[in-house]
């Protein structure tokens, strides 16, 4: 591994670094578990970076990136046995992730109807012995944007069936609230289309989603580089899911470290309370005592 | 005839899910595997007993890298 992070102050790399002036949510978290942990469903996560396992050139590189990212929760998909190079047996994805000690968040990627997504979720629960599900119901092949009515229908059915549902959704605060109304444990709004690396195209909507719901908000999709992840946290998101941005970076391990630092920095900045934006300058040096030199 | 992961096989009606799994190289104690028959989940605990009907569509799924 490279030493690209050597110049970054150690406090930024600590997920549980103490910070003065934290916001109320951070304070509650800290009071509850003694560190700035994230609670989703029954899970307590020390890291606010979730990792997608798709797109890595090799399982070995994926394992190194997981370690560098500090993540405790990673997504996995469900596909036919034998359809991937390493999807069963020794040295398989399941074995690699078990060795990494991370919890699994199965997804319903590729599902286009509530019916398919619900069945996929039930199969994932059977395969991975978890009630967690990242619910994706795709409505369009080119943009991979969610199909809102199908998503809501699937979410309701899965909540009724005892799942801890984390829906991949648009950045629509109204839909986010509807998803929480039917019992979703978190919402995962997109910053921009999956794998696009376009960052957060509508930060105002992400901020509105944050205000609209009480459950954790996990920025999902669209992250291109570290500053996008930091912005998500500054906007008040509770966590960030990065997949392609890390897996398809030229150096996935270095990008995993960058994302880890960015999520921690954005969280600290959110708690610190940024200065308001102003059109005109506001001097930081006082005019009192200014000499007359001419 | 049973359709196994989208392909017609010579696994016959009356065979168990466990037998179908053996056909695709999955042992009964394999981790991270789930089975659906005709759109319904078949729990691991019933793999040995569940008898497949003629024309059943069996899906045998496992973990794949994905976001």
Description:
The complex is a heterodimer of chains A (294) and B (67). With 294 residues, chain A is of the alpha/beta class. Chain A has eleven helices and ten strands. Chain A has helices at 10-13, 24-33, 59-69, 93-100, 114-128, 148-160, 173-181, 203-212, 226-234, 244-247, 252-272; strands at 38-40, 43-45, 49-52, 73-80, 103-106, 132-135, 164-169, 188-189, 218-220, 239-242. In chain A, strands 5-4-3-10-9 form a five-stranded parallel beta sheet. Chain A has a three-stranded parallel beta sheet with strand order 6-7-8. Chain A has a two-stranded antiparallel sheet with strand order 1-2. In chain A, α6 links the parallel β6 (132-135) and β7 (164-169). In chain A, α3 runs parallel beside α11 and α9 packs parallel to α11 (252-272). Chain A is globular. Mean pLDDT of chain A is 88; it is low at 1-22 and 28-34. Chain B has 67 residues and is mostly beta strands. In chain B, strands 2-1-5-3-4 form a five-stranded mixed beta sheet, with helices on one face. The longest helix of chain B is centred in the first third of the chain and has 7 residues, at 17-23. The radius of gyration of chain B is 11 Å and the shape is globular. Chain B starts with a strand and ends with a strand. Chain A binds chain B through residues 52-56, 59, 62, 75-84, 87-88, 92-95, 97-98, 104, 107, 109, 119, 122-124, 126-128, 194-195, 241, 243-244, and chain B through 5-6, 24-26, 30-36, 39-41, 43-44, 59-67.
């Amino acid at each position: 591994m490279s030493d690209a992070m050597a110049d970054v102050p150690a406090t930024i790399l600590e997920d549980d670094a103490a910070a003065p002036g934290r916001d109320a949510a951070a304070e509650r978290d800290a009071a509850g578990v003694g560190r700035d942990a994230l609670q989703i469903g029954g899970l307590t996560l020390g890291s606010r970076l979730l990792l997608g396992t798709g797109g890595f050139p090799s399982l070995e590189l994926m394992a190194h990136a997981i370690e560098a990212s500090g993540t405790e929760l990673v997504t996995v998909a469900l596909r036919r046995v034998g359809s991937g190079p390493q999807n069963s047996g020794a040295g398989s994805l399941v074995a690699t992730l078990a060795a990494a000690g991370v919890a699994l968040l199965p997804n319903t990627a590729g599902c286009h109807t509530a019916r398919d997504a619900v069945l996929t979720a039930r199969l994932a629960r059977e395969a991975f012995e978890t009630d967690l599900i990242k619910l994706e119901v795709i409505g369009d092949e080119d943009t991979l944007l969610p199909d809102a009515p199908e998503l809501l229908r699937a979410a309701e059915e899965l909540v009724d069936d005892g799942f801890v549902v984390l829906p991949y959704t648009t950045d629509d605060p109204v839909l986010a609230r509807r998803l929480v109304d039917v019992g979703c444990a978190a919402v995962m709004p997109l910053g921009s289309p999956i794998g696009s690396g376009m960052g957060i195209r509508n930060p105002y909507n992400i901020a509105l989603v944050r205000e609209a719901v009480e459950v954790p908000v996990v920025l999902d999709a669209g992250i291109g580089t570290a500053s996008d992840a930091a912005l998500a946290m500054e906007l008040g998101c509770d966590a960030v899911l990065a997949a392609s941005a890390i897996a398809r970076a030229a150096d996935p391990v270095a990008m995993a470290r960058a994302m880890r630092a960015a999520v921690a920095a954005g969280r600290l900045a959110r708690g610190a309370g940024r200065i308001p934006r102003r059109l005109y300058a506001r001097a930081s040096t006082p005019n009192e005592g200014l000499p007359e030199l001419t | 005839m049973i359709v196994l992961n989208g392909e017609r096989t010579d696994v016959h009606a009356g065979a168990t899910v466990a037998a179908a799994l053996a056909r695709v190289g999955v042992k009964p104690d394999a981790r991270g595997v789930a089975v659906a028959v005709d759109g319904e989940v078949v729990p691991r605990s019933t793999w040995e007993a569940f008898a497949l009907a003629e024309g059943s569509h069996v899906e045998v799924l496992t973990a794949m890298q994905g976001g």
